TrEMBL record:
Record GO cellular component, one term: cytosol
SUPFAM superfamilies: Homeodomain-like
Protein name: AraC family transcriptional regulator
The keyword Transcription appears for this protein: yes
GO molecular function annotation: DNA-binding transcription factor activity; transcription cis-regulatory region binding
Entry coiled-coil feature ranges: none
HTH araC/xylS-type domain ranges (all copies): 211-308
């Protein structure tokens, strides 16, 4: 089951043995859809009871006629109880905050971290879609310890992330709950057709310096940037630039490396450009130095990402 799904998504199966390997958002979404079809489960075998195809559609239909987001989330909590018992969807206001929690019964084994992550992203993505606004998060709680991929949460869940909490939950400003539902039934088919992109990769406009720096560095390629260049472009002193990046748990070099890694993977999987051309586009002085850097970033060679030709749909 897994091998055909990987091939359909354009992912070389050998990458599964490399902990540092990466896939694009498009590849992940294609893999997710392929597994959902093969498993007959919209949350591919992540919970004790499958969510049969159509569960998301009829959930959303039950929410579209709600007066505001709070009413929609309350309806979802009721609808969810009809689907499975792995957790309870709990929606409440706590002062100036609104909290949407996945409360797990103590009598059941804990859910897998990835199951809770994806369900939380589904709640966040659907809620943002319903009110046609990107809901900015004040914080995220997870009931489990930090997983090996916890660093990725800075992108998936902008805002403070806490682990080992009594519940898995999203925190947002309570005013979002008063927002009216702006989507209509006619818009639902497009939303479902693009699933899971539209709920998994909800875009943000964060104030994190790391993301501003990454956007600036991308615009300068193939030239590299220095700390002086970046500081001037971002209207900071060099010292402040490095201090704030350190406070965010990163550095100038890490941001540049991660940017070039991600762009390399996108171009290797999404284009037929020669590896030498990609190396030049990313500012490397030749294919050899690109190969060395890529192997250090991902644990594999650039050619491994070319084993399955990019799909064109």
């Amino acid at each position: 089951m897994a091998l055909p799904a990987l091939q359909e998504a354009g992912i070389a199966p050998e990458l599964l043995s490399h902990p540092s390997a990466r896939v694009t958002e498009r590849q992940f979404a294609m893999l997710y859809r392929a597994l959902a079809v093969r498993c007959d489960d919209e949350m591919p075998r992540l919970f004790s009871r499958p969510l049969r195809p159509g569960a998301l559609k009829f959930t959303c239909l039950s929410l579209l006629e709600a007066r505001n987001l709070y009413t929609a989330m309350h309806r979802w909590s009721i609808f969810h109880r009809l689907l499975h018992e792995d957790f309870r969807l709990d929606v409440r206001r706590e002062g100036s905050r609104a909290v949407v929690a996945l409360a797990e019964p103590a009598s059941r084994p804990p859910n897998k971290p990835m199951a809770l992550e994806l369900m939380l992203k589904l709640v966040h993505g659907v809620a943002s879609w319903l009110i046609d606004r990107r809901i900015q998060l004040l914080g995220v709680d997870f009931s489990f310890a930090p997983p090996p991929w916890a660093a990725e949460y800075d992108i998936l869940y902008p805002g403070p992330v806490s682990y080992g909490m009594g519940r898995t939950a999203l925190h947002m400003d309570a005013s979002y709950m008063d927002q009216p539902i702006r989507r209509t039934r006619s818009e639902l088919p497009d939303f479902l057709r693009r699933a899971p992109e539209d709920w998994l990769f909800v875009p943000f406009k964060e104030a994190r310096l790391e993301h501003r720096l990454r956007e600036y560095a991308a615009g300068q390629l193939p030239q590299s940037i220095t700390g002086e260049d970046a500081a001037q472009a971002l209207h900071l002193s060099v010292r402040t630039l490095h201090r704030r990046l350190a406070a965010e748990g990163t550095s100038l070099q890490s941001v540049k490396d991660q940017l070039r890694r991600d762009l390399a993977i996108q171009r290797l999987t999404g284009s037929q450009d020669a590896i030498a051309a990609i190396a030049a586009q990313l500012g490397f002085d030749g294919p050899a130095s690109f190969h060395r850097a890529f192997k250090a970033w991902t644990g594999s060679t650039p050619g491994m990402y070319r084993i399955t030709p990019p799909l064109r749909r």
